[in-house]
Write a structure and sequence with these properties.
Blueprint: H1 24-36, E1 39-43, H2 50-60, E2 69-73, H3 83-90, H4 101-109, E3 115-119, H5 125-138, E4 143-147, E5 158-161, H6 183-195, H7 206-215, H8 220-227, H9 235-249, H10 259-273, H11 276-285, H12 294-301, H13 308-320, E6 325-329, E7 332-336, H14 339-352, H15 355-376, H16 382-391, H17 393-405, H18 410-419, H19 421-426, H20 430-443, H21 449-464, H22 468-485, H23 488-504, H24 508-525, H25 528-544, H26 548-565, H27 569-584, H28 588-605, H29 608-624, H30 628-645, H31 656-670, H32 672-684, H33 687-695, H34 699-702, E8 708-709, E9 712-713, H35 716-726, H36 731-738, H37 742-756, H38 761-781
Helix pairs in contact: 1-2, 4-5, 6-8, 7-9, 8-10, 9-10, 11-13, 11-14, 12-15, 15-17, 15-18, 17-18, 18-20, 18-21, 20-21, 21-22, 21-23, 22-23, 23-24, 23-25, 24-25, 25-26, 25-27, 26-27, 27-28, 27-29, 28-29, 29-30, 29-31, 30-31, 30-32, 30-33, 31-32, 35-37, 35-38, 36-37
Length: about 775
């Protein structure tokens, strides 16, 4: 691995689908502002290119942020209360506490050197301002880059008004060859050649192209919408139609339209040029939030002017006209709209009088999808269903919001939110699940099977957050109502949850009785997922009560049930159970093997609770095998995950003695300083590195790496500076690359030389190359 690739960067910036044109001065200025301010907001009218510009700046600054550059798309989010959960989910944070979400997020970010890009903040301006101020106060190395049509209004916020692209002066006629220097012309030509290969700027059309760009005020979105017209029109015809449309808007006066009206006129024109089926589809498709695929479009749009047989052609035409954007995900096409285009479509949908029917069809489609996912969850398609529900998360949020705001739709919302119980738990979105369920339960108080299910799901989430006081009245209500209605499935879950509540309180004997009763009831209902779920808790309780052989038998039976159904999510938990029982029986080898098997499955679902359990177990096994450095490192890894998800060894307080024995034993054998060093390295490791370390997949990933030398440990920032030294960069160049002060770089260089015992930059460069080479050779040997 070349030195320049160390260390790996985190983040989630999307790939650019089209070329980025111009904006050099803007990129340079925004980078400068971010070096001086921790909050920079890009403002400007819709279609000015705020998002695209922010993404380019963020991509350029990747190297400057060891903890990553993270893009949080807010356009599809309508509920301000879900803002912190949305950001946390983007960062991979799975908080399972009942803490105020903003506090949990701020705590997580407190030691991160990260750039957070919040896109489309205007409709959540107040919530974004509160959250941004909170996390910036808590996290001194965090920087925020926001895009919004209006500034957030915070002290210290630097505002950058995104200009439109440069256009030729209407009073001048530059030579044809000189037109390329104008950004608007360059963008028009780039997009024009994409739809009409062979289109070139000539003496004959240069003036017309310049005039088109002037009439579009240099707005990037307007230029992109106009360029696609060259499929059917000449550039002269495009200009003629633009002049006609703007003349109508200004009543024939020579006045210039405000830029927001320029864009609106362009979208109006695009809409007017669409035949009626395309207009109807455009309006109906605006009901989707965060994108859609063909089956979803067929369910929502295939009525009236749009038929199932013509819809695919209609979608293709809307893509050609830049109304829709088509992306490929896992071999399937998914469509989306830019937010400005979607807002226009929603206006047309409201005006059409069809909005209620369209939103009901949208609700019905996702209700059916969620119920199907629930019915098929205990089977081999779990990963596929999880990926699909995650893709449709914004649509599901829109449906739940519709259920809360549209009279008479509350029961449907209860049905959907309750059916998603596995999703709220497996993704760590316990706070969001409670948010929806509590609001829907308050709204829809009439007894029903869906209310029963919503009650036990909400109680389950409360228990996972260790908020037993809120769980217990819901469990009691669920059981009473379900028994009256003969809803045996909900009764079984209520009984199980009573056992889990007792377990959380440390009342293991009571917990065992309730969980055994719950198991019998799930079995009687033939509820396989309930049977497996309750066994995870029951096995642990039985083992902790001193019956490891009985626990082992129950665990083996449950694992066989998982295998017979192709169930893998809960199997990761059962494998941890199996490891715990083996540990209690003194079989350290089997305990470690089960822990690794469980960890591999938990990784498939990014199930961080199960990952933490398995890493903790592997730390105990390492200590038993006298691998004390590894034990200390894995204890640090587990601690970082417990901290990330905000949960201790849930309901397993009796396990703390194993944790404490491992910790004190490793500290005693290594000495306090060595233990704390290894523990600290484990705590700083990223999640994927933690998993690789626990599975011993690669020594380069699994333990001490190029940050160690001569007994000294370099910080992630010092490793980064050392890598840039190896590339031959001066202190000034490094400061520019990392967006930090030159004096800060000089201090880092001094620390590196001191820690490594070197006297020159060339020695640092040679050491970095040597470290990279030895890692590569080690990987080859393995």
């Amino acid at each position: 691995m070349p030195a320049r690739q160390l260390p790996r960067r985190a983040g989630n910036l999307p790939a650019e689908l089209t070329s980025f044109v111009g904006r050099r001065r803007e990129v340079r200025e925004i980078r400068r502002l971010l070096s001086e301010s921790r909050l920079v907001t890009l403002t400007g009218v819709g279609g000015a290119g705020k998002t695209r510009l922010s993404l380019r700046v963020a991509a350029d600054l990747r190297r400057a942020f060891p903890d990553g550059v993270w893009f949080v798309e807010l356009a599809a989010l309508d509920d301000h209360a879900l803002l912190p959960q949305t950001i946390a989910s983007t960062l991979g944070l799975r908080d399972r506490t009942a803490r105020w979400p903003v506090s949990a997020l701020a705590e997580y970010l407190s030691d991160k050197h990260m750039l957070l890009l919040l896109d489309n903040c205007e409709h959540l301006r107040t919530a974004c301002a509160v959250l941004t101020e909170t996390v910036l106060r808590a996290a001194p190395a965090l920087r925020v880059l926001a895009t919004s049509r209006q500034a957030l209004g915070l002290t210290g916020e630097h505002i950058f008004q995104v200009p439109t692209l440069s256009v030729p002066d209407p009073g001048r006629h530059p030579p044809t060859a000189a037109l390329h220097q104008y950004e608007a012309v360059s963008l028009f030509l780039d997009r024009a050649t994409a739809v009409k290969p062979g289109f070139v700027l000539t003496e004959a059309n240069a003036g017309t192209v310049a005039r088109v760009c002037q009439r579009l005020d240099g707005l990037p979105l307007a230029i992109e919408l106009t360029a696609v017209r060259l499929r059917a029109l000449s550039v002269d015809e495009v200009l003629e139609r633009l002049e006609d449309r703007y003349r109508l808007l200004t009543a024939g006066s020579p006045g210039v339209l405000p830029r927001h009206q320029t864009l609106r006129a362009l979208i109006d024109w695009s809409y007017a040029l669409c035949p009626e089926p395309e207009r109807a589809a455009w309006a109906a498709l605006s009901a989707f939030s965060g994108g859609f695929d063909l089956p979803a479009a067929e369910a929502v749009c295939a009525t009236g002017e749009v038929t199932a047989s013509t819809l695919l052609d209609t979608l293709a035409t809307l893509v050609d006209k830049s109304i829709l954007i088509a992306d490929e995900h896992d071999g399937r096409i998914r469509y989306r709209m830019l937010e400005t285009i979607r807002e226009y479509g929603r206006d047309r949908l409201r005006e059409s009088g069809t909005e209620p029917a369209v939103r009901r069809r949208h609700r019905d489609y996702f209700e059916q999808l969620v119920e199907q996912a629930r019915d098929e969850w205990c089977g081999p398609g779990q990963q596929r269903w999880m990926a699909r529900i995650l893709r449709e998360h914004n649509n599901i949020r829109a449906v739940l919001d519709y259920s809360l705001t549209e009279p008479g739709q509350g029961e449907a919302g209860l049905k959907i939110a309750g059916a998603l119980w596995f999703f709220w738990i497996a993704t760590g979105l316990t706070a969001e699940g409670r948010h929806w369920l509590e609001r829907l339960l308050e709204l829809e108080a009439a007894p029903s099977a869906w209310r029963n299910r919503a009650l036990w799901v909400c109680a389950y989430l409360c228990i996972l957050q260790e908020d037993v006081a809120e769980a217990e009245p819901r469990i009691a209500e669920c059981r009473r109502a379900a028994e009256r209605q003969g809803d045996t499935e909900s009764v079984a879950w209520a009984v199980q949850l009573s056992g889990m509540a007792a377990m959380s309180a440390g009342e293991l004997v009571t917990a065992r009785a309730q969980l055994e009763d719950g198991l019998a009831r799930h079995y009687g209902c033939r509820d396989d997922i309930g049977t497996i779920d309750v066994c995870f808790y029951l096995v642990a309780v039985v083992a902790l009560l001193g019956e490891p052989h009985r626990a082992a038998k129950l665990c083996e039976e449950t694992l066989a049930r998982c295998d017979s159904h192709g169930e893998r999510w809960l199997k990761s938990y059962m494998l941890w159970d199996l490891g715990l029982v083996a540990w209690q029986l003194g079989d350290c080898t089997r305990a470690a093997a089960s822990g690794r098997d469980g960890l591999r499955l938990a990784r498939e679902f990014n199930e961080q609770w199960a990952i933490a359990f398995c890493v903790e177990l592997l730390a105990w096994a390492a200590h038993a095998e006298l691998r004390h450095r590894r034990a200390a490192y894995l204890l640090g890894c587990a601690d970082s995950i417990w901290h990330r998800i905000g949960a201790p060894l849930f309901g397993m307080r009796h396990l703390l003695r194993y944790h404490e024995q491992c910790t004190s034993g490793a500290r005693s054998m290594l000495g306090v300083a060595a233990f704390e060093a290894e523990f600290g390295k484990g705590k700083q490791a990223g999640l994927e590195r933690v998993i690789s370390a626990a599975l011993e997949e690669s020594t380069a990933q699994a333990g001490p790496d190029a940050s160690e030398a001569n007994g000294a440990v370099l910080t992630p920032r010092e490793i980064e500076v050392a890598g840039l030294i190896a590339e031959g960069l001066s202190n000034k160049a490094i400061a520019g690359q990392l967006v930090i002060a030159q004096r800060t770089v000089e201090a880092h260089v001094e620390h590196i030389l001191d820690k490594l015992g070197f006297s020159s930059r060339s020695q640092v460069a040679a050491w970095m190359v040597e470290m990279s080479t030895s890692e590569a050779e080690g990987a080859n040997r393995r």
